[in-house]
Amino acid sequence: MFGRSIGCAPTLREKLLAAAFAEEEAEHSGRLCKLFEDLGVDPEAVFRERPPAAQFWSLDLDSWVHIAVFNFTVDRAGSHQIMEYRDSSYLPWAEAMGAVLEDEEGHYGNGVENLRAFARDKAFFAEFQKVYFGMLPITVKRAFGRPTGADNDYCVKVGLKRHTTEQVVNRYLEEMLGYMREVGLKFPPMTAFDAVGAELMPSTRAILASNQ
Ligand SMILES: [Fe+2]
Description:
Low-confidence stretches: none
Structural class: mainly alpha
Bound molecules: fe (ii) ion
Radius of gyration: 17 Å
Number of domains: 1
CATH superfamily: Ferritin, core subunit, four-helix bundle
CATH architecture: Up-down Bundle
Helix content: over 70%
């Protein structure tokens, strides 16, 4: 996915940024592979089991608007998950995530910058909004998973993560909302979340309903 963004980027500056981000994401993946190896898990076996990114995220990542929405939406959802592990009770994980989050701040800064660039042109912005309507519901479902469950409860209980999924999703959406209000971007209608089977807590629905 991050390699494709280099080809799709419309300017030399964006191509160089995309290449730098791709290198950083590869380094982040390397850190996770090391954590797997420490636990006796073969990262190649994990990788072989994973579906292709485009299939997992239900995306055509073949145009700049898709990449821009991805960077604003999906990449930041990952960051909010990583924020949880920064304070994880599993110390090797916590230590590996600090530098990752520094890089991810740069990625999100670029995502917001591109949102503002799209917002300067009415037709481009309409396209951004359309792609965002399709991408956010899948992101909420895929990046955060079910808002409740025994696995979540266990992770919070033993301190692997520090907040419930409901809290993490809401923090992600509220951060996003600040940038959305600035340019007039709307959340997708609730029917779009229901259509993909994204489970939402009442507090999450309230945030979404506040800007539709
Ligand atoms: Fe990133």
